[in-house]
Specification:
globular; 172 residues; 10 strands; single chain; 46% strand; Lipocalin
């Protein structure tokens, strides 16, 4: 066999071999989640499909969720609110004013894991503005269409009614 023919056969064999992808390329949903996402819409959905403002908080909302390649995540959602009078820092406000501002802000951070088979992301909360969430894991159904991500929370009972939240994000 001459050298040219051997080179051609070796090249053909290499092309026919399965391509080995690195972990991020084969991660599918996880790879698609990575990066920063800006909040577009957030609602609470009641039984029967009726929607209301997210968690009963006044809208419109601004928010950011970040998924890093290292497995860390951070989520923040804020209702529109007027700046503090006199541009006071929060520690200079009265307790009543502090509570009013904190009620318009929601945030937590921690790690995340993805269940590809269930199209879910699990937020493993390491710290939260709401101390009752620290140490818990939230499961979110994920739907990705183009550069839009919809996260749907697990259904929960509130006042004898089943509800869930739906948040729509755009890739930044």
């Amino acid at each position: 066999m001459n050298k040219t023919r051997r080179s051609l056969l070796a090249s053909a064999a290499a092309l026919a071999s399965p391509i080995v992808l690195d972990a991020e390329e084969t991660a599918g949903l996880r790879a698609q989640l990575l990066g920063a996402w800006q909040l577009l819409d957030a609602v609470t959905v009641h039984a029967g499909g009726l929607t209301e403002p997210w968690m009963g908080r006044p809208g419109p909302y601004r928010g950011l969720i970040i998924y890093s390649a290292s497995g860390l995540m951070s989520a923040q959602v804020a209702s529109d609110r007027a700046p503090a009078k006199g541009h006071r820092r929060i520690d200079e406000m009265t307790v009543a004013d502090q509570l009013r501002y904190l009620a318009t802000y929601y945030a937590y951070f921690g790690r995340f894991e993805v269940d590809e088979a269930q199209s879910e992301v699990h937020h493993i909360i390491e710290a939260s503005l709401d101390p009752s969430e620290t140490g818990t894991t939230y499961v979110r159904k994920v739907a990705l269409v183009n550069d839009r991500m919809t996260l749907t929370t697990e259904r929960r009972q509130v006042n004898n009614e089943t509800r869930y939240n739906r948040l729509v994000w755009a890739r930044v």
